Amino acid sequence: MKPWILGLTGGIGSGKTAVADRFASLGVHVVDADQAARWVVESGRPALQQIVERFGQEVLLQSGELDRAGLRQKVFADGAERQWLEKLLHPLIRAEVARHLALAESPYAIMVSPLLVESGQYRQVGRVLVVDVPESLQIARTTARDQASEEQVRAILNAQAQREERLKHADDVLVNDRDLSWLAAEVERLHRFYLTLRGAQK
């Protein structure tokens, strides 16, 4: 029986990674779309070649790897360039995620994506789990983790799907505003429930 797919998402600083790691420790196959986004632009992959042809050598670091921050600045300043890049990368990322999900041997597998709702990826999964935290906690966690200013974090929050939009698509919500042992117990509770589902009937 093919594993069904759980989509895991949440805003910046919500603790998606901690939740995904917890599921992984229970033997669940986890694929991270952000990771896939890094794989598709690795040295030697065709996508990197196309990006260099489009934007020039200055989008490469000395090591020959993609300067992700530099590229991000270029495309955020120009909507048409961003669309070009998304058109190139999104199908590749989708294929990479699908390839890794196909390797799953657990009863269900998890696709972690911060843009699950915005990108429409939620249509490819059987259920959606949203990790949710109050905005004030998101800002506090992210500024501490990324050494980012509150303005930068607010800008990212505004670019991501608004909380209401994400929650509208949620089948399950995990409010991650307590400590790690509480989080572990919540994940185990959800895991037991997910094991009872076949093909994620709602």
Automatic annotation (TrEMBL):
<keyword id="KW-0963">Cytoplasm</keyword>
<keyword id="KW-0808">Transferase</keyword>
<keyword id="KW-0067">ATP-binding</keyword>
<comment type="similarity">
    <text>Belongs to the CoaE family.</text>
</comment>
<feature type="binding site">
    <location>
        <begin position="13"/>
        <end position="18"/>
    </location>
    <ligand>
        <name>ATP</name>
    </ligand>
</feature>
<comment type="pathway">
    <text>Cofactor biosynthesis; coenzyme A biosynthesis; CoA from (R)-pantothenate: step 5/5.</text>
</comment>
<dbReference type="Pfam" id="PF01121">
    <property type="entry name" value="CoaE"/>
</dbReference>
<keyword id="KW-0418">Kinase</keyword>
<dbReference type="GO" id="GO:0004140">
    <property type="term" value="F:dephospho-CoA kinase activity"/>
</dbReference>
<keyword id="KW-0173">Coenzyme A biosynthesis</keyword>
<keyword id="KW-0547">Nucleotide-binding</keyword>
<dbReference type="InterPro" id="IPR001977">
    <property type="entry name" value="Depp_CoAkinase"/>
</dbReference>
<protein>
    <recommendedName>
        <fullName>Dephospho-CoA kinase</fullName>
        <ecNumber>2.7.1.24</ecNumber>
    </recommendedName>
</protein>
<comment type="function">
    <text>Catalyzes the phosphorylation of the 3'-hydroxyl group of dephosphocoenzyme A to form coenzyme A.</text>
</comment>
<dbReference type="InterPro" id="IPR027417">
    <property type="entry name" value="P-loop_NTPase"/>
</dbReference>
